[in-house]
Amino acid sequence: MPHYFTRAEAEALLPAISVELGKIQVHYRQAQGLEKDLEEMQVKSMGNGHHLQGKILHVQESLLEHVQALQQAMEELQTLGCELKDPEIGLIDFLSLRNGEEVYLCWHLGEEHIDYWHTLEAGFAGRQPFEDE
């Protein structure tokens, strides 16, 4: 049976989630940059770029380190019970119940509180503010 968060339960996790999201964003951005560098070097090495092989190996090793750190941070986030929807903006959903219906409490990095919810199908675009309940 899934765990349904109350707003208070979810908000209590925001400090820990923010730490993990910070790690995720750093490693995500680093991995993206290294992937781009690697693609460019691989294209260059197809011509007369055999001298790039050592650098390519180094970039591949760095990329692997960032991917592993990213996976570890995402696993840690998952143990908190929330769902990462977008690592770039730090978008998180918490499964909850609203009037007996499954919904997501929706929050992203930079917001002080969980002020929005949406149906499971609506996603971020369908966020609705909580009326003070």
TrEMBL record:
Coiled coil ranges: 24-80
Q: Which InterPro entries match?
A: DUF2203 (IPR018699)
Keyword set, alphabetical order: Coiled coil
- One Pfam family cited in the UniProt record for this chain: DUF2203
Protein name per Swiss-Prot or TrEMBL: DUF2203 domain-containing protein
According to its UniProt entry, this protein's organism is: Ktedonobacter racemifer DSM 44963
Instruction: Recall the taxonomic lineage recorded for the source organism.
Output: Bacteria, Bacillati, Chloroflexota, Ktedonobacteria, Ktedonobacterales
